[in-house]
Write a structure and sequence with these properties.
The protein is elongated and about 55 Å long. Helix 1 crosses helix 3, helix 2 packs across helix 3 and helix 4 packs antiparallel against helix 5. By secondary structure, the protein is mostly helical. The chain has five helices and no strands.
C-alpha cells in the first residue's frame, strides 16, 4: 500500500494533467449548449438552459478556473508539506508560486490551441483560487495554534 504522501503527490500530478488536458480542447459555446440541451426536457426547461448559459456561462467557466487552481494549490501544499518536509508557511508560499507559474504557463500554452487564447486576465482569475487556498491554510494554521 502506497504511503499517503505518495498518494497525495500522485493526485497532484493527475490534477495538473487534467488542467493541462482541458486547456488543450476547445468547444464552441453553441455546440456545448446544444449538447447539454439534448439531456433537458423540451420546452421551457431547454429555453431556460439556453438563456442561462448564454447569459451566465462565462461566470461558470471563470468559477471553474478559480476552483481548479484552488484545488491545485492545496494539493501542491499538501505534497510539499507532507512529502518534502517543508514548514507549513514555506510549503504554502512555494505551492502558491508553483500554481501561479503553472497558471501562466497554461495560459501561454492555450495560445497554441486552435480556438483558444491565453489571457493575463485568466491568470489573475486563477490567482483568486490560489489566494483563497492560501487564506484557508493560514486560517487553519491559526486555528490549530489557539
Amino acid at each position: 500500500m502506497p504511503r499517503r504522501s505518495n498518494l497525495i503527490g500522485l493526485m497532484t500530478s493527475v490534477w495538473a494533467i487534467i488542467i493541462f488536458a482541458t486547456s488543450c480542447t476547445f468547444i464552441e459555446r453553441r455546440v456545448f449548449i446544444n449538447f447539454v440541451k439534448r439531456f433537458i426536457p423540451a420546452g421551457m426547461p431547454q429555453q431556460l438552459w439556453v438563456s442561462f448559459w448564454s447569459a451566465f456561462g462565462i461566470f461558470v467557466v471563470k468559477a471553474y478556473h478559480i476552483s481548479e487552481y484552488a484545488l491545485l494549490s492545496y494539493l501542491l501544499y499538501l505534497t510539499l508539506y507532507r512529502q518534502w518536509g517543508k514548514t507549513r508557511g514555506r510549503a504554502m508560499l512555494s505551492s502558491a508560486i508553483i500554481a501561479l507559474l503553472f497558471a501562466a504557463s497554461d495560459e501561454w500554452h492555450q495560445t497554441f490551441v486552435p480556438g483558444r487564447g491565453g489571457t493575463w486576465v485568466d491568470v489573475v482569475i486563477d490567482s483568486v483560487g490560489i489566494g483563497l487556498t492560501t487564506l484557508y491554510v493560514l486560517w487553519r494554521q491559526a486555528q490549530s495554534e489557539v
